[in-house]
Amino acid sequence: MCGQFICSECEQAIVHTDVEDEKYQHYVDCMKRIWWSALS
User: Fold this and answer.
1) Residues 32, 4: contact at Cβ < 8 Å?
2) 22 with 35: CB under 8 angstroms?
3) Exposure of 14 by Cβ count < 10 A (0-12 exposed, 13-18 middle, 19+ buried)?
4) CA–CA dist 1, 27 (Å, integer)
5) C-alpha span between 27 and 23 (Å, rounded)
6) What is the pLDDT of residues 5-27, one digit of tens each?
7) How far from chain centre, in Å, is Cα 6?
8) Could you tell me how far CA 37 lies from the centroid of its own chain?
9) Would the N or C end of the chain have less CB density within 10 A of its end CB?
10) What percentage of the chain has pLDDT greater than the value 90?
11) What percent of the chain is helix, strand and coil (3-state, nearest 5)?
């Protein structure tokens, strides 16, 4: 993602986490950080 490596375990966790799970927001925040660092 944006030139950054995400291991297959993390990718699966992100893909299979329900939006109502509290971990979901954590994954969204992490992906935002990756996106913002790629833009800078």
Assistant:
1) no
2) no
3) middle
4) 13
5) 6
6) 788 998 899 999 999 999 999 99
7) 8
8) 13
9) C
10) 48
11) 70, 0, 30
